[in-house]
Amino acid sequence: MEMLQLDELTKVEGEVFKTTSTVLNVVLSLNGDTLFVLTKPNRSQRIILMGWDISSGLLKPGKEYFVTELFVEYNLVAVREGVLLQTSRDTLELCNPELSECIRSWTGLEDITQVIPISEERVACNGITSDVIILDTTREGILSTIPIHGRFVACNSKCYVITADEDELQMHCGDKVLWKMTRLFDFRPCKTFSPTEQYCVLSEPLTEALYVLDVVLGKILRRIQPRIHEQRLFKNVGCQFLSDEECVTCFGIKSTGYFLQLFNVKSGDLLSEIVLESRVCSLAACPRERLIAVGFTDSKVNFKVLQVKLPGDKHSRKNKRSGFINT
């Protein structure tokens, strides 16, 4: 395995990418040609959104926002027309890919804690209320509001919502329950499905074990326990699908640091692993181009980009093993 470090933002001239800036979030565009990076200069009330062209290595002019409040998460989502950014607790703004203008915005969404892509145009928002708000980013206004009972877990492109209460995990289509199962553990919300939406991966906060859920059958397919090198796991940064069979996840270990692991969700096999030298704040993926982006919070290198070779790829049919490769 080899990681390709495509750029170091600290080498770019200007205040934005000095080492006094902290990376809050990274996300890859849908076609994988641009990496959007959200940073915050230390001791500042500004957040700065920058775009980096992966093929040329050139930065696009950034867009600056003044924020007067702290968020639980600085939500950043790539959509067809550009990139969607949470600019306050109740506001989302859509910028064009060049970050030169705001195309449209949505306000009055109450306290948003999660913005999850469910298609190339639509996102699902959830916060302190017992509702899931569906936005179509190609138009203004709220597309629909879905009342839910229990805690929000996931939402797919058909607006089927998975929720959890004290006893059960269940999927709803409006008022209709499509399936339900006994909930044995507490799960973190799922932010991504496999490309065909057959699978999603849920993580258990206590043990950081991953559970592969077959969304069609309403069945836990398997439990994946990450390899922890005989150390105590302390954080799961996220999980992203690269195909219907492979997903990549990032974990942190107290004494060792952070590392990426590539799994086959059907077999549970660990296919590849890379140890990272610094604390990771976010993980993004572009299945179309097999790209992974990693954002760091306390490193001289603000982000790194990787490409993954999978057995089904045309350029890797002669290689039967999956892994992270140089481009």
Structural class: mainly beta
Number of helices: 0
The end-to-end span amounts to: 12 Å
Task: Give the overall average pLDDT.
Answer: 83
Percentage of residues in helical conformation: under 10%
Order of strands in the sheet with most strands: 1-2-3-4
Q: What is the strand tally?
A: 27
Query: What is the C-alpha radius of gyration, as a whole number of Å?
Result: 19 Å
Residue stretches low in confidence (pLDDT < 50, at least 5 long) are 1-19, 316-321
Order of helices and strands: EEEEEEEEEEEEEEEEEEEEEEEEEEE
* Largest sheet: number of strands, sense, barrel closure: 4 strands, antiparallel
Report the β-strand fraction as a percent range. Answer: over 45%
Shape: globular
Can you describe this structure?
The chain has no helices and 27 strands. The protein has a four-stranded antiparallel sheet, with no helix packed on it. The chain has a four-stranded antiparallel sheet with strand order 5-6-7-8, with no helix packed on it. It has a four-stranded antiparallel sheet with strand order 9-10-11-12, with no helix packed on it. 0% of the residues lie in helices and 51% in strands. Residues 1-19 and 316-321 have low confidence and may be disordered. The chain starts with 20 loop residues before the first strand and ends with a strand. The chain has 327 residues and is mainly beta. A hairpin with a 3-residue loop joins strand 14 and strand 15 (168-173).
